[in-house]
Automatic annotation (TrEMBL):
Primary gene name: pgi
Function, as annotated: Catalyzes the reversible isomerization of glucose-6-phosphate to fructose-6-phosphate.
Keywords, in A-Z order: Cytoplasm, Gluconeogenesis, Glycolysis, Isomerase
Catalytic reactions on record: alpha-D-glucose 6-phosphate = beta-D-fructose 6-phosphate
Name of the protein in question: Glucose-6-phosphate isomerase
Active site: E352 (proton donor), H383, K511
PROSITE patterns per UniProt: P_GLUCOSE_ISOMERASE_1, P_GLUCOSE_ISOMERASE_2, P_GLUCOSE_ISOMERASE_3
Amino acid sequence: MSRLDHATAWEALKSHYTEVRDLHMRDLFAADPERFRRFSLSVGDLMLDYSKNRITEETRNLLVTLAEERGVPEMRAAMFSGAPINSTEHRAVLHVALRNRAGRVIEVDGEDVTPLVNAELAKVRAFAEKVRDGSWTGATGKPVRDVVNIGIGGSDLGPAMVTQALKPYGKSGLKVHFVSNVDASHLVETLKGLDPETTLFLVASKTFTTQETLTNATTARQWLTAALGEAAVANHFAAMSTNAEAVGAFGIDTANMFRFWDWVGGRYSLWSAIGLPIAIAIGPDNFDALLAGAEDMDRHFHEAPLAENMPVILALLGVWYTNFFGSGAHAVLPYDQYLARLPAYLQQADMESNGKTTCRDGKPALWATGPVLFGEPGTNGQHSFYQLLHQGSHLIPCDFIAPAQSHNPRGDHHAILLANVLAQGEALMRGKTAAEAEAELEAASLPASQVEALVPHKVFPGNRPSNTLIMPRLTPRTLGMLIALYEHKIFVQGVIWGINSFDQWGVELGKQLAKRILPALKDDASPAAGHDASTAGLIAAVKALRAGK
Ligand SMILES: O=P(O)(O)OC[C@H]1O[C@H](O)[C@H](O)[C@@H](O)[C@@H]1O
């Protein structure tokens, strides 16, 4: 693949940028009453308004040309066909096969994976049903009341986020908990008040080698067997993994194992057996609706022309700000309390996928890649970091996400919430001029000297971009669409930047070093030698504190 900065469209965008950067969106809206229509699109129940971006039709055309030049349609076809596009691990990237409810043949190494997916999904459905209707019982014959998912990263964030997002679809008397951090406090606090007789543990790990998960699962196992004995493990532990051998070695009956495959990336795995806690929490039919929503988005992404393709548009806007405006961050702002964990989920999805500076061909990326992603739900962020969004020195594009109807209609709550989300997008776009600030202050009858002093502080530059995604209601189906939208956005950006979005070598070094430090912390005979002075000093200090010295 040739260099991004050698693309013809890149050069054209560079010179186009010099024409667009000084345009104010206020003026663009004033000049074009059709701007909303021109720059918005819908897929099923999901509508994207991207008119509040610093773009013209020419910008969109050039960005689409860049996507074509960088081979987005070809890579998209390669992904959907099961080609091994995860080049460093020689793997296919087939989360789309997990929601291929249409039953398309998708081959990996000559084998159609669709029947495998369907068979495993049937197992997940049946198990979830049994837990929900009480026919799966613990060792003492009691039905399950608490499910504890033990996993981390992709084996935690997706299921945890979705389970929280779809809480209105939960079942009373059945709670699903998530333990991820190796800090024992996470497990201990979760298990407080839980009864071993009615608790089911799901150990979720693609590799089944992850230190945190195995440590937590071992301690959970001790908690259970201390109360119910060794023989109880079979009724109280199930696993989701690609590694049957390690599951068996851990002592979980592989009859209670739900499998997935190496062509499912961890952070793209909530649609696989990793989604078992979701299916238990909301029921198999709702889990199916989640898959159906993702499939709707897959079909749209696969078939729609690039200029009308929602994930492609979001990706291109991100490229526009990252690579031309020099923006290094992106805010995801869901105005729905149920989506509180969406930013955390997307941090892994986006930053673990595109936080890289080595291209597919092994050469360095000489251009910026994935941004820092952050966010908070609802109006909380407005009373915290939005100050910086409005008046700070960084340009931070925002995605606002808002369901029009609440699951909890109470008085004016939802109208107030919606008024706020719409106001924020408007405020970021319009800003407030010095003349407007001055008029406001004068209307408040402030003395002229104070007006003059305050005006510069009251000015908002505006021209700050945002996308707004709205839907009738947060349902399994709309949530499925929303998640798949971001998955494909991330994919398109990776293709344009020339990186492999599906490996994560950057997480390995810390793991390796932790393995070296652990013995030094635990054992006085293991010296802290071989570490830099800071790390060695910290090891010694931590050791002394642990010993109460
Ligand atoms: O599912 P597991 O194999 O336990 O992996 C859990 C997580 O840990 C790894 O370090 C990766 O960074 C993540 O991508 C992965 O989701």
